[in-house]
Specification:
alpha+beta; five-stranded mixed barrel
Length: 277
């Protein structure tokens, strides 16, 4: 859960999923996470109410809730993906990329977080985690303007899979591997445009991207876990396994460690304007 004496912050926290786990495992029985409405803030110059957890559920208390869940789930939460599928829960520390989950005919539908890990045997596992924009901390940048770009027509099939907790797939991608591949492609290619294609090492050029945290501590529930037949899919030689799920929480180890792409774009824009003078 991080080093002693280091103050971290939560970039993502799902009140609903956390409460579901508390209830299902009889952790803190009778306790309910509560929402409160506080002084209005602003988005784009317009006043909006600020939603936050009620008294006693500050970040320090979230750490205690998270610790109790981790103890209750125990080794059911996979951290080294040498164990065979399916995993029910997954947890690890590493880079998490944050973006908006969009579709060709719909906007502001949700958030997508992408994690790429390497198991102790050298095999690579990618996790694509979907959640709510409302669960993101403000500094992640869900309200930031971003470039536009390609969006996946598989978003509706992915949404159905998530809504059914991984049990329903009535889409044209009715092969489980096919839908896993589409989710993986969404994580890597959503928002691509001419600029991002020309500079693939600069993720802030892709549309709908918010930022990344290099050393995030994350914990997720898993709905789909497949070892892919790489002869069928253009995954590159290194991707062996794809998991689809939803994060309970994503925690940043330090308040200043998150890279917000809005700030990167702003700095690059200022440099470009100075260069043209």
């Amino acid at each position: 859960m991080g080093e002693l004496g280091v103050v971290g912050t939560y970039l993502y926290w799902s009140n609903r999923l956390v409460q579901d786990i508390l209830d299902a495992n009889d952790i803190m029985p009778g306790y309910r996470l509560q929402w409160t409405i506080t002084t209005p803030g602003e988005i784009g110059g317009y006043p909006v109410p600020q939603v936050q957890f009620g008294p006693g559920t500050r970040t320090t208390y979230r750490r205690e809730i998270a610790s109790r869940i981790e103890r209750a789930i125990g080794q059911q939460a996979v951290s080294d993906f040498v164990t065979p599928p399916p995993a029910r829960f997954a947890t690890r520390t590493g880079r998490v990329n944050f973006a908006e989950f969009v579709g060709p005919r719909s906007r502001f539908t949700g958030a997508v977080m992408h994690v790429s890990t390497q198991a102790s045997d050298g095999r690579r596992t990618d996790l694509i985690l979907f959640g709510s924009l409302h669960n993101l901390a403000g500094r992640v940048g869900a309200a930031d303007p971003t470039p536009s770009g390609w969006s996946s027509s598989a978003m509706f099939a992915i949404t159905e899979l998530l809504a059914s907790l991984g049990t329903v797939n009535r889409s044209q991608w009715d092969d489980p591997e096919a839908l896993s591949y589409e989710a993986w492609k969404l994580a890597y290619e959503q928002g691509k445009n001419r600029q991002s294609d020309a500079h693939p090492d600069q993720p802030w050029l892709r549309g709908y991207t918010f930022g990344h945290e290099a050393d995030a501590e994350w914990y997720a529930i898993i709905y789909s876990d497949l070892i892919m037949d790489k002869s069928r899919w253009d995954l590159g030689p290194e991707v062996d396994r794809i998991l689809i799920g939803a994060p309970l929480w994503i925690r940043s180890p330090r308040p200043d460690s998150y890279v917000r792409y809005r700030d990167v774009r702003s700095r690059l824009s200022m440099k470009s304007r100075r260069w043209r003078r």
